[in-house]
Design brief:
It is built from 15 helices and no strands. It is mainly α. The protein has one domain (28-408). The longest helix has 42 residues, at 3-44.
Protein backbone atom coordinates (compact mmCIF):
# COMPACT_ATOMS: atom_id res chain seq x y z
CA UNK A 1 0.00 0.00 0.00
CA UNK A 2 1.38 3.45 -0.95
CA UNK A 3 1.68 6.42 1.33
CA UNK A 4 -1.03 8.22 -0.50
CA UNK A 5 -3.45 5.37 -0.13
CA UNK A 6 -2.82 5.20 3.58
CA UNK A 7 -3.84 8.78 4.27
CA UNK A 8 -7.62 8.22 4.11
CA UNK A 9 -7.30 5.33 6.54
CA UNK A 10 -5.45 7.58 8.97
CA UNK A 11 -8.14 10.21 8.68
CA UNK A 12 -10.76 7.60 9.32
CA UNK A 13 -8.95 6.47 12.44
CA UNK A 14 -8.63 10.05 13.63
CA UNK A 15 -12.24 10.68 12.82
CA UNK A 16 -13.28 7.59 14.74
CA UNK A 17 -11.28 8.71 17.78
CA UNK A 18 -12.81 12.16 17.55
CA UNK A 19 -16.26 10.60 17.37
CA UNK A 20 -15.64 8.63 20.55
CA UNK A 21 -14.40 11.75 22.31
CA UNK A 22 -17.42 13.72 21.16
CA UNK A 23 -19.70 10.91 22.32
CA UNK A 24 -18.11 10.92 25.77
CA UNK A 25 -18.42 14.70 25.97
CA UNK A 26 -22.09 14.51 25.04
CA UNK A 27 -22.65 11.84 27.73
CA UNK A 28 -20.98 14.01 30.36
CA UNK A 29 -23.00 17.03 29.24
CA UNK A 30 -26.25 15.06 29.46
CA UNK A 31 -25.36 13.80 32.95
CA UNK A 32 -24.52 17.31 34.15
CA UNK A 33 -27.72 18.66 32.63
CA UNK A 34 -29.83 15.97 34.30
CA UNK A 35 -28.15 16.66 37.65
CA UNK A 36 -28.75 20.39 37.32
CA UNK A 37 -32.37 19.78 36.34
CA UNK A 38 -32.85 17.56 39.41
CA UNK A 39 -31.39 20.26 41.66
CA UNK A 40 -33.53 22.97 40.07
CA UNK A 41 -36.62 20.78 40.33
CA UNK A 42 -35.88 20.20 44.02
CA UNK A 43 -35.78 23.95 44.65
CA UNK A 44 -38.45 25.34 42.33
CA UNK A 45 -40.34 22.26 41.15
CA UNK A 46 -43.48 20.69 42.62
CA UNK A 47 -43.28 19.08 46.09
CA UNK A 48 -41.21 15.91 45.98
CA UNK A 49 -41.32 14.17 49.38
CA UNK A 50 -39.26 11.24 48.11
CA UNK A 51 -36.36 13.56 47.25
CA UNK A 52 -36.88 15.67 50.39
CA UNK A 53 -36.02 12.80 52.72
CA UNK A 54 -32.49 12.66 51.27
CA UNK A 55 -32.04 16.37 51.94
CA UNK A 56 -33.07 15.89 55.57
CA UNK A 57 -30.63 12.97 55.82
CA UNK A 58 -27.86 15.22 54.49
CA UNK A 59 -28.74 17.88 57.08
CA UNK A 60 -28.60 15.20 59.77
CA UNK A 61 -25.21 14.01 58.49
CA UNK A 62 -23.85 17.57 58.47
CA UNK A 63 -24.99 17.97 62.08
CA UNK A 64 -23.22 14.76 63.08
CA UNK A 65 -20.00 15.95 61.46
CA UNK A 66 -20.30 19.33 63.19
CA UNK A 67 -20.76 17.67 66.58
CA UNK A 68 -17.74 15.44 65.99
CA UNK A 69 -15.60 18.40 64.87
CA UNK A 70 -16.44 20.35 68.01
CA UNK A 71 -15.77 17.35 70.22
CA UNK A 72 -12.37 16.42 68.78
CA UNK A 73 -11.03 19.72 67.45
CA UNK A 74 -13.20 22.50 68.88
CA UNK A 75 -11.61 23.03 72.30
CA UNK A 76 -10.07 26.42 71.41
CA UNK A 77 -13.47 27.69 70.26
CA UNK A 78 -15.46 26.15 73.10
CA UNK A 79 -13.03 27.54 75.67
CA UNK A 80 -14.48 30.97 74.91
CA UNK A 81 -17.81 29.72 76.26
CA UNK A 82 -16.34 29.07 79.69
CA UNK A 83 -18.57 31.67 81.27
CA UNK A 84 -21.60 29.66 80.11
CA UNK A 85 -20.37 26.38 81.57
CA UNK A 86 -20.81 24.86 84.98
CA UNK A 87 -17.97 22.34 84.96
CA UNK A 88 -15.41 24.72 86.53
CA UNK A 89 -12.87 24.65 83.76
CA UNK A 90 -12.63 20.88 83.38
CA UNK A 91 -11.41 20.23 79.86
CA UNK A 92 -13.48 17.08 79.41
CA UNK A 93 -16.67 19.13 79.68
CA UNK A 94 -15.83 21.18 76.60
CA UNK A 95 -16.25 18.45 74.00
CA UNK A 96 -19.28 16.93 75.69
CA UNK A 97 -21.06 20.27 75.97
CA UNK A 98 -20.28 21.10 72.36
CA UNK A 99 -21.88 17.83 71.27
CA UNK A 100 -24.93 18.40 73.47
CA UNK A 101 -25.43 21.95 72.18
CA UNK A 102 -25.27 20.84 68.54
CA UNK A 103 -27.57 17.92 69.34
CA UNK A 104 -30.07 20.24 71.02
CA UNK A 105 -30.18 22.46 67.94
CA UNK A 106 -30.75 19.46 65.68
CA UNK A 107 -33.44 18.14 68.02
CA UNK A 108 -35.27 21.49 68.06
CA UNK A 109 -35.21 21.72 64.26
CA UNK A 110 -36.66 18.27 63.67
CA UNK A 111 -39.11 18.57 66.56
CA UNK A 112 -40.48 21.78 65.05
CA UNK A 113 -40.77 19.95 61.73
CA UNK A 114 -42.56 17.13 63.54
CA UNK A 115 -45.09 19.49 65.11
CA UNK A 116 -45.71 21.23 61.79
CA UNK A 117 -46.17 18.05 59.70
CA UNK A 118 -47.72 15.50 62.06
CA UNK A 119 -50.95 13.86 60.81
CA UNK A 120 -50.38 14.98 57.22
CA UNK A 121 -52.33 12.55 55.03
CA UNK A 122 -52.66 13.88 51.48
CA UNK A 123 -50.16 15.26 48.97
CA UNK A 124 -52.35 18.31 48.31
CA UNK A 125 -52.08 19.33 51.97
CA UNK A 126 -50.13 22.56 52.42
CA UNK A 127 -47.91 20.82 54.93
CA UNK A 128 -46.63 18.60 52.11
CA UNK A 129 -45.28 21.74 50.49
CA UNK A 130 -43.67 22.78 53.77
CA UNK A 131 -42.10 19.34 54.19
CA UNK A 132 -40.83 19.05 50.61
CA UNK A 133 -40.07 22.67 49.69
CA UNK A 134 -39.07 25.96 51.34
CA UNK A 135 -35.46 24.83 51.58
CA UNK A 136 -33.84 28.27 51.99
CA UNK A 137 -36.16 29.03 54.91
CA UNK A 138 -35.55 25.64 56.52
CA UNK A 139 -31.78 25.91 56.13
CA UNK A 140 -31.90 29.28 57.89
CA UNK A 141 -34.12 27.71 60.56
CA UNK A 142 -31.66 24.84 61.04
CA UNK A 143 -28.70 27.22 61.28
CA UNK A 144 -30.57 29.34 63.82
CA UNK A 145 -31.43 26.36 65.99
CA UNK A 146 -27.79 25.23 65.76
CA UNK A 147 -26.46 28.58 67.01
CA UNK A 148 -29.01 29.34 69.76
CA UNK A 149 -27.96 26.51 72.16
CA UNK A 150 -24.46 28.01 72.39
CA UNK A 151 -25.97 30.99 74.21
CA UNK A 152 -27.85 28.87 76.74
CA UNK A 153 -26.51 28.32 80.28
CA UNK A 154 -24.62 25.14 81.04
CA UNK A 155 -27.22 23.95 83.55
CA UNK A 156 -29.86 23.82 80.83
CA UNK A 157 -27.52 21.91 78.51
CA UNK A 158 -26.77 19.38 81.24
CA UNK A 159 -30.51 18.95 81.79
CA UNK A 160 -30.93 18.29 78.07
CA UNK A 161 -28.16 15.70 78.34
CA UNK A 162 -30.18 13.84 80.96
CA UNK A 163 -33.35 14.02 78.86
CA UNK A 164 -31.38 12.83 75.83
CA UNK A 165 -30.80 9.49 77.55
CA UNK A 166 -34.53 8.79 77.32
CA UNK A 167 -34.82 10.12 73.77
CA UNK A 168 -31.92 7.96 72.64
CA UNK A 169 -33.51 4.98 74.35
CA UNK A 170 -36.78 5.69 72.52
CA UNK A 171 -34.85 5.80 69.25
CA UNK A 172 -33.27 2.41 69.94
CA UNK A 173 -36.69 0.91 70.71
CA UNK A 174 -38.16 2.33 67.50
CA UNK A 175 -35.19 1.05 65.54
CA UNK A 176 -35.26 -2.49 66.90
CA UNK A 177 -39.04 -2.73 66.40
CA UNK A 178 -38.59 -1.56 62.80
CA UNK A 179 -35.81 -4.09 62.13
CA UNK A 180 -37.72 -6.91 63.80
CA UNK A 181 -40.88 -6.08 61.88
CA UNK A 182 -38.93 -6.05 58.61
CA UNK A 183 -37.48 -9.48 59.34
CA UNK A 184 -40.89 -10.96 60.20
CA UNK A 185 -42.40 -9.27 57.12
CA UNK A 186 -39.69 -10.75 54.89
CA UNK A 187 -40.26 -14.16 56.45
CA UNK A 188 -44.02 -13.93 55.83
CA UNK A 189 -43.43 -12.90 52.22
CA UNK A 190 -41.11 -15.83 51.55
CA UNK A 191 -43.54 -18.26 53.18
CA UNK A 192 -46.61 -16.96 51.36
CA UNK A 193 -48.33 -19.20 48.81
CA UNK A 194 -47.15 -17.02 45.93
CA UNK A 195 -43.46 -17.29 46.85
CA UNK A 196 -43.16 -20.53 48.83
CA UNK A 197 -42.20 -22.80 45.93
CA UNK A 198 -40.22 -20.18 44.02
CA UNK A 199 -38.11 -19.05 46.99
CA UNK A 200 -37.89 -22.33 48.89
CA UNK A 201 -34.26 -23.09 48.02
CA UNK A 202 -33.07 -19.51 48.54
CA UNK A 203 -34.80 -19.33 51.92
CA UNK A 204 -33.18 -22.57 53.05
CA UNK A 205 -29.71 -21.42 51.98
CA UNK A 206 -30.04 -18.00 53.64
CA UNK A 207 -31.52 -19.52 56.80
CA UNK A 208 -28.72 -22.06 57.19
CA UNK A 209 -26.06 -19.45 56.41
CA UNK A 210 -27.56 -17.05 58.96
CA UNK A 211 -27.75 -19.69 61.69
CA UNK A 212 -24.21 -20.93 61.03
CA UNK A 213 -23.00 -17.33 60.94
CA UNK A 214 -24.62 -16.68 64.32
CA UNK A 215 -22.95 -19.69 65.93
CA UNK A 216 -19.62 -18.81 64.31
CA UNK A 217 -19.93 -15.25 65.61
CA UNK A 218 -20.52 -16.55 69.14
CA UNK A 219 -17.46 -18.82 68.91
CA UNK A 220 -15.27 -15.98 67.66
CA UNK A 221 -16.45 -13.72 70.47
CA UNK A 222 -15.49 -16.39 73.00
CA UNK A 223 -12.02 -16.54 71.41
CA UNK A 224 -11.51 -12.79 71.09
CA UNK A 225 -13.26 -11.38 74.13
CA UNK A 226 -13.25 -14.22 76.69
CA UNK A 227 -9.74 -15.68 76.41
CA UNK A 228 -9.54 -16.52 80.13
CA UNK A 229 -12.02 -17.60 82.85
CA UNK A 230 -11.62 -14.26 84.64
CA UNK A 231 -13.49 -12.47 81.82
CA UNK A 232 -16.75 -13.27 83.58
CA UNK A 233 -18.77 -10.34 82.26
CA UNK A 234 -17.93 -11.02 78.62
CA UNK A 235 -18.62 -14.71 79.14
CA UNK A 236 -22.02 -13.75 80.56
CA UNK A 237 -22.84 -11.49 77.60
CA UNK A 238 -21.81 -14.08 75.01
CA UNK A 239 -23.51 -16.99 76.77
CA UNK A 240 -26.79 -15.10 77.12
CA UNK A 241 -26.57 -14.28 73.41
CA UNK A 242 -26.12 -17.96 72.57
CA UNK A 243 -29.12 -18.85 74.75
CA UNK A 244 -31.24 -16.17 73.05
CA UNK A 245 -30.32 -17.50 69.59
CA UNK A 246 -31.39 -21.00 70.59
CA UNK A 247 -34.52 -19.71 72.33
CA UNK A 248 -35.67 -17.72 69.29
CA UNK A 249 -35.07 -20.72 67.04
CA UNK A 250 -36.92 -23.06 69.39
CA UNK A 251 -39.94 -20.77 69.71
CA UNK A 252 -40.11 -20.13 65.95
CA UNK A 253 -39.94 -23.82 65.07
CA UNK A 254 -42.37 -24.99 67.76
CA UNK A 255 -45.48 -26.82 66.61
CA UNK A 256 -47.79 -23.96 67.61
CA UNK A 257 -45.85 -21.06 66.13
CA UNK A 258 -44.31 -22.55 62.95
CA UNK A 259 -42.59 -19.30 61.95
CA UNK A 260 -40.00 -21.05 59.78
CA UNK A 261 -36.22 -20.86 59.67
CA UNK A 262 -35.55 -17.51 58.03
CA UNK A 263 -36.75 -15.11 60.73
CA UNK A 264 -34.90 -16.71 63.68
CA UNK A 265 -31.77 -17.02 61.55
CA UNK A 266 -31.73 -13.34 60.64
CA UNK A 267 -32.64 -12.31 64.18
CA UNK A 268 -29.79 -14.47 65.43
CA UNK A 269 -27.35 -12.57 63.23
CA UNK A 270 -28.82 -9.29 64.46
CA UNK A 271 -28.48 -9.98 68.19
CA UNK A 272 -25.00 -11.48 67.74
CA UNK A 273 -24.06 -8.23 66.01
CA UNK A 274 -25.54 -6.25 68.92
CA UNK A 275 -23.55 -8.33 71.41
CA UNK A 276 -20.37 -7.75 69.41
CA UNK A 277 -20.93 -3.99 69.33
CA UNK A 278 -21.65 -4.03 73.07
CA UNK A 279 -18.36 -5.72 73.88
CA UNK A 280 -16.54 -3.48 71.41
CA UNK A 281 -17.91 -0.52 73.38
CA UNK A 282 -16.06 -1.58 76.51
CA UNK A 283 -13.26 0.79 77.55
CA UNK A 284 -10.01 0.16 75.71
CA UNK A 285 -8.28 -0.44 79.04
CA UNK A 286 -10.34 -3.58 79.61
CA UNK A 287 -7.88 -6.51 79.67
CA UNK A 288 -10.37 -8.94 78.12
CA UNK A 289 -10.92 -6.75 75.06
CA UNK A 290 -7.91 -7.78 72.97
CA UNK A 291 -9.43 -6.47 69.76
CA UNK A 292 -9.76 -3.01 71.30
CA UNK A 293 -6.05 -3.05 72.14
CA UNK A 294 -5.24 -3.82 68.51
CA UNK A 295 -7.55 -1.04 67.35
CA UNK A 296 -5.89 1.57 69.56
CA UNK A 297 -2.51 0.70 68.08
CA UNK A 298 -3.64 1.47 64.53
CA UNK A 299 -5.10 4.90 63.89
CA UNK A 300 -6.51 3.93 60.51
CA UNK A 301 -8.64 1.24 62.18
CA UNK A 302 -10.14 3.82 64.54
CA UNK A 303 -10.73 6.29 61.72
CA UNK A 304 -12.34 3.68 59.47
CA UNK A 305 -14.53 2.40 62.29
CA UNK A 306 -15.57 5.94 63.16
CA UNK A 307 -16.53 6.80 59.56
CA UNK A 308 -18.53 3.58 59.23
CA UNK A 309 -20.26 4.27 62.55
CA UNK A 310 -21.35 7.76 61.46
CA UNK A 311 -22.69 6.40 58.17
CA UNK A 312 -24.56 3.68 60.08
CA UNK A 313 -26.12 6.28 62.40
CA UNK A 314 -27.44 8.35 59.49
CA UNK A 315 -28.57 5.30 57.50
CA UNK A 316 -30.34 3.73 60.48
CA UNK A 317 -32.12 6.98 61.27
CA UNK A 318 -33.15 7.41 57.63
CA UNK A 319 -34.37 3.83 57.23
CA UNK A 320 -36.31 3.90 60.49
CA UNK A 321 -37.85 7.30 59.75
CA UNK A 322 -39.54 6.17 56.54
CA UNK A 323 -40.91 3.00 58.19
CA UNK A 324 -43.93 4.59 59.85
CA UNK A 325 -46.17 1.63 58.95
CA UNK A 326 -44.47 -0.57 61.53
CA UNK A 327 -46.38 1.34 64.24
CA UNK A 328 -49.77 1.38 62.53
CA UNK A 329 -52.63 -0.70 63.83
CA UNK A 330 -54.39 -3.41 61.87
CA UNK A 331 -57.29 -1.18 60.84
CA UNK A 332 -54.96 1.44 59.38
CA UNK A 333 -52.88 -1.20 57.60
CA UNK A 334 -55.98 -2.83 56.08
CA UNK A 335 -57.02 0.39 54.36
CA UNK A 336 -56.09 0.51 50.69
CA UNK A 337 -53.71 3.39 49.86
CA UNK A 338 -55.07 6.06 47.57
CA UNK A 339 -53.28 7.90 44.79
CA UNK A 340 -53.14 11.16 46.74
CA UNK A 341 -51.78 9.62 49.95
CA UNK A 342 -48.34 10.73 51.08
CA UNK A 343 -45.65 8.06 50.54
CA UNK A 344 -44.57 7.97 54.20
CA UNK A 345 -45.54 9.58 57.49
CA UNK A 346 -43.95 13.03 57.63
CA UNK A 347 -44.54 13.47 61.36
CA UNK A 348 -43.07 10.08 62.24
CA UNK A 349 -40.12 10.76 59.93
CA UNK A 350 -39.21 13.99 61.73
CA UNK A 351 -39.88 12.47 65.15
CA UNK A 352 -37.38 9.70 64.46
CA UNK A 353 -34.79 12.24 63.35
CA UNK A 354 -35.43 14.28 66.52
CA UNK A 355 -34.83 11.18 68.64
CA UNK A 356 -31.84 10.38 66.42
CA UNK A 357 -30.36 13.76 67.36
CA UNK A 358 -30.41 12.69 71.00
CA UNK A 359 -29.04 9.29 70.03
CA UNK A 360 -25.98 10.59 68.21
CA UNK A 361 -25.26 12.89 71.18
CA UNK A 362 -25.18 9.88 73.49
CA UNK A 363 -22.91 8.00 71.10
CA UNK A 364 -20.43 10.86 70.86
CA UNK A 365 -20.23 11.26 74.65
CA UNK A 366 -20.42 7.55 75.46
CA UNK A 367 -23.79 7.97 77.23
CA UNK A 368 -21.95 9.95 79.91
CA UNK A 369 -21.40 13.70 79.56
CA UNK A 370 -18.88 13.63 82.42
CA UNK A 371 -16.27 11.41 80.78
CA UNK A 372 -13.44 12.09 78.36
CA UNK A 373 -13.80 10.63 74.86
CA UNK A 374 -10.72 9.89 72.78
CA UNK A 375 -10.43 11.24 69.27
CA UNK A 376 -11.94 9.12 66.49
CA UNK A 377 -13.94 7.08 68.98
CA UNK A 378 -17.67 6.67 69.22
CA UNK A 379 -19.90 4.94 71.75
CA UNK A 380 -17.12 3.76 74.08
CA UNK A 381 -17.64 3.26 77.81
CA UNK A 382 -19.42 0.99 80.25
CA UNK A 383 -22.64 2.95 79.91
CA UNK A 384 -22.56 2.35 76.14
CA UNK A 385 -21.88 -1.34 76.70
CA UNK A 386 -24.86 -1.84 78.99
CA UNK A 387 -27.18 0.16 76.74
CA UNK A 388 -26.32 -2.09 73.81
CA UNK A 389 -26.64 -5.25 75.89
CA UNK A 390 -30.10 -4.25 77.10
CA UNK A 391 -31.00 -3.34 73.52
CA UNK A 392 -29.96 -6.83 72.43
CA UNK A 393 -32.04 -8.53 75.10
CA UNK A 394 -35.01 -6.32 74.33
CA UNK A 395 -34.74 -7.14 70.60
CA UNK A 396 -34.99 -10.85 71.37
CA UNK A 397 -37.98 -10.26 73.65
CA UNK A 398 -39.75 -8.15 71.01
CA UNK A 399 -39.22 -10.82 68.36
CA UNK A 400 -40.48 -13.64 70.58
CA UNK A 401 -43.52 -11.58 71.48
CA UNK A 402 -44.27 -10.85 67.83
CA UNK A 403 -44.32 -14.53 66.89
CA UNK A 404 -46.32 -15.73 69.91
CA UNK A 405 -48.71 -12.77 70.21
CA UNK A 406 -51.29 -14.19 67.77
CA UNK A 407 -51.40 -17.38 69.83
CA UNK A 408 -51.58 -15.57 73.17
CA UNK A 409 -54.41 -13.39 71.92
CA UNK A 410 -56.10 -16.32 70.19
CA UNK A 411 -55.50 -15.30 66.62
CA UNK A 412 -55.67 -11.53 67.04
CA UNK A 413 -52.90 -10.12 64.84
CA UNK A 414 -51.27 -7.78 67.33
CA UNK A 415 -48.72 -5.77 65.35
CA UNK A 416 -49.17 -7.96 62.26
CA UNK A 417 -46.91 -7.31 59.30
CA UNK A 418 -48.24 -5.58 56.18
CA UNK A 419 -49.45 -7.78 53.39
CA UNK A 420 -46.74 -8.89 50.98
CA UNK A 421 -47.30 -7.65 47.44
Amino acid sequence: MTLGSSMPDERVVRGGGGGETASRERSVAVAVEETCCACVQLVVGPPNPMMARYVYAFVFLATNLLAWTLRDFGHPVLAELRRLRGCQGASYCLGAEGVLRVSLGCFLFFFVMFLSTVRTRKVHDRRNSWHSEWWPAKIVLWMGFTVVPFFLPSALIQLYGKVAHFGAGAFLVIQLVSITRFITWLNDCCRSEANLKRCHMQVQVVSIAAYVGSILGVVLMYVWYAPRPTCKLNILFITVTLVLVQLMSGVSLSSKVKAGYLAPGLMGVYIVFLCWTAIRSEPHTEICNKKAEVATSADWVNITSFVIAVIVIVTATFATGIDSKCFEFKKAEAEQPEDDDIPYGFGFFHFVFAMGAMYFAMLFVGWNAQQTMEKWTIDVGWASTWVRVVNEWLAAIVYIWMVIAPIVWKGRQVGSSPECT
